[in-house]
TrEMBL record:
Alphabetical list of Pfam families matching this protein: Hist_deacetyl (PF00850)
InterPro entries per record: HDAC_classIV (IPR044150), HDACs (IPR000286), His_deacetylse_dom (IPR023801), His_deacetylse_dom_sf (IPR037138), Ureohydrolase_dom_sf (IPR023696)
The name this protein goes by in its record: Histone deacetylase 11-like
PANTHER family reported for this sequence: HISTONE DEACETYLASE 12, HISTONE DEACETYLASE HDAC1-RELATED
MF terms in GO: histone deacetylase activity; hydrolase activity
Biological process terms in GO annotation: epigenetic regulation of gene expression
Length: 334
């Protein structure tokens, strides 16, 4: 089984022609974890967004000896050039230079600051690096990312740059062969920005499982939308994912999967409306990554949404995907 898997992965990975210089230098053999201390910035006191969660995710992974610091890869800040693959020149210029008016700031949920621009650019660089490393090693996980509500010309719902879209575009453009990317978005909210960005792009397939009554009120059309009812529990949720992922992989045959492992379907989440448990999230993440990897397709993961005032509880919940990925890495002999 292991040998078959390795051969499949080898075939899938050989299409990757150009690597980031850093990839060659990194000698770690464990599951690649992508993290930057610049994933965070200051927010006003009592701001609703749990910004402090990002470094705590890495903290718990190290403290619980899920990973060692040798597994940590540090991304570069996303350049304006890279971002312009998805975002309009006008929006990027306004966003970077602080020309975002009150109304636009309200829609994003964040007051503009130089710090927030920097953090979003590091986060996007992290997702791009995760995609790049996944193409080389089969699996890579960032400790941030999943800002799927950002559109080409504006930010929305705590999302200012669409990291998933930037990474997908980068993956398509940075290859001499024609590639296809499948975005599996299991955040409780619809990936409306990503769906909009790729609605005319046949090389990217957007798959979103979300709570129909949740934000955004006005949904976009993904390539496959599965809208679920409030209060869905582990078993029904998992069987929903199981019904679709295998045939999607068979028919679309992606070269890379970008997996948004949002934890906001959790029963305790402040903004979710579903009833998944920690164990349910673990089984979901394990299922997605095992299913994709066993087809010989590389996976890059981002943490997606998760909302709680208890930062440590939330960070532990976000670390579920890295723990499940560690199991996949070990069991699949990667
Ligand atoms: Zn969400």
């Amino acid at each position: 089984m292991k040998r078959v898997l390795c051969r499949r992965l080898g075939a899938a990975l050989s299409c990757c022609t150009r690597f980031h210089a850093q990839l060659v230098r990194h000698e770690s053999t464990g599951l690649p974890i992508i993290h930057h201390s610049g994933y965070v910035c200051e927010l006003p006191t009592n701001h609703r967004f749990p910004m402090a969660k990002f470094p705590r995710v890495l903290h718990f992974l190290l403290q619980d000896q899920v990973i060692t610091d040798r597994q940590v890869w540090v991304p570069e800040i996303a350049s304006k050039d890279l971002l312009s693959g998805v975002h309009t020149e006008e929006y990027l210029s306004n966003f970077i230079n602080g020309k975002i008016d009150e109304r636009e700031q309200r829609r994003t949920g964040f007051p503009w600051s130089e710090g927030i621009v920097r953090r979003c650019r590091y986060e996007t660089g992290g997702t791009v690096l995760a995609a790049e490393v996944a193409l080389q090693r089969g699996l890579a996980c960032s400790t941030a990312g999943g800002t799927h509500h950002a559109f080409p010309g504006y930010g929305s719902g705590f999302c200012l740059l669409n990291d998933l879209a930037v990474a997908a575009k980068y993956t398509l453009s940075n290859s001499s062969t024609r590639r296809k990317v499948l975005i599996v978005d299991l955040d409780v909210h619809q990936g409306d920005g990503t769906a909009f960005i790729f609605k005319e792009e046949p090389s990217v397939f957007t798959f979103s499982v979300h709570c129909g009554k949740n934000f955004p009120l006005r949904k976009q059309q993904s390539d496959l939308d599965i809208s679920v009812e409030d209060g869905l529990e582990d078993k029904e949720y998992l069987s929903t994912v199981e019904q679709h992922l295998p045939w999607l992989l068979e028919s679309f045959r992606p070269d890379l999967v970008l997996y948004d492992a949002g934890v906001d379907p959790h029963w305790e989440d402040e903004l979710g409306r579903l009833r998944l448990t920690d164990e349910g999230l673990y089984q979901r993440d394990l299922y997605v990554m095992k299913t994709v990897v066993s087809k010989g397709v590389p996976v890059a993961t981002v943490i997606g949404g998760g909302y709680s005032r208890d930062i440590d509880k939330l960070a532990l919940r976000h670390s579920i995907v890295h723990r499940a990925a560690t199991q996949v890495w070990r069991e699949c002999g990667m």
